[in-house]
Amino acid sequence: MSISLQYKIQNVVSTFNGGVQRLNLRQLCMLLNWCQFNPEVFAALIGRLEDPKTTLLTFTSANNVCTGAKSEIDSRIACRMMASIMPKSSKSWADGL
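Request: output the structure for the sequence above.
Response:
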């Protein structure tokens, strides 16, 4: 008896590091109208992109999590969007640099 299974990718999760030691998430949130930051509720900046429809979590350590993408390509696009906003040499978002 053979069973034919069909599958569909629903959620691609990926991570990347922003390349700086520490981010000031309050300042970053003020610059981006598609993000929210409430440290009493959750310790990460929450960014919701519409195209591709994904959610990005950015932590003070500059580690990022991208979730909700429907494909690897969409996940890469979302991560690159956030990475392009966080240049490695930017000291305006960094704490104590």
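Residues 46 and 56 are 6 Å apart (CA to CA).
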